[in-house]
Amino acid sequence: MPRLNVIVASTRPGRVGRRIGDWFVTAAARHGAFDDVRLVDLAEIGLPFHDEPHHPSEGRYVHPHTREWSSLTAAADAFVFVMPEYNYGFNAPLKNAIDFLYHEWRYKPVGFVSYGMTSGGLRAVQMIKQVVTTLNMMPVNDSVPIFLRRALDEDGRLVPDPDREAAAELMLDEVARLAAALAPVRVTA
Domain 3-188: which topology? Predict the structure, then answer.
C-alpha cells in the first residue's frame, strides 16, 4: 500500500495548521488506504528560502537540508497539503518547499485540506493547482475546506464535524485511487 505525506504548510507561531494536520493524519490512518501516513510539518523541517545553486530539475543538491527534503518527498506516493489561505492565496513556505524539488513531485496525486476565515481556503487551493500541475502532479477535485469561525471552539480546538470527516473520506478515496493508477508511471519516469 502507498505512503501518504501530509504536509502542514503553515510555519507561523500560534498556527492552527498543526492541529488540523494532526486531525487529518488520524483520519487518513483510519481510512486505511495508506499503510504509511506521515505528518510532515514545514515548521519542523525548517527549509531556508530556496538556496540551491542548481535548478531543481537537475537533482544536484548541495545542501543537506535539500537532500533530506528530497528523500522525504521522493519516498511518498501521494500528498495532502494542509494549507492556510493568506490574502486570497497560498503561503510562501509551501511554495518554497515545492520549489526546492522537481522530479520528486512528479506523477503523484495531491489533495488539499485548506482553512481560512471566509472561504475555507478554497481560493488558495485554486491558485496552487496551477503550480502542482506544472510539476506533473495530479490534484484531486474533492477537498476539505475548513471555515475557522465555525470549526474552532473558544479554546482553539477543532470541533468535531461529521461533514468534515465525510469530505476527508471522499478526498482520501480519490487520492488513493490516483496513487494506485499513477504507480506504473512513477516506476518508468
Answer: Rossmann fold (3.40.50)
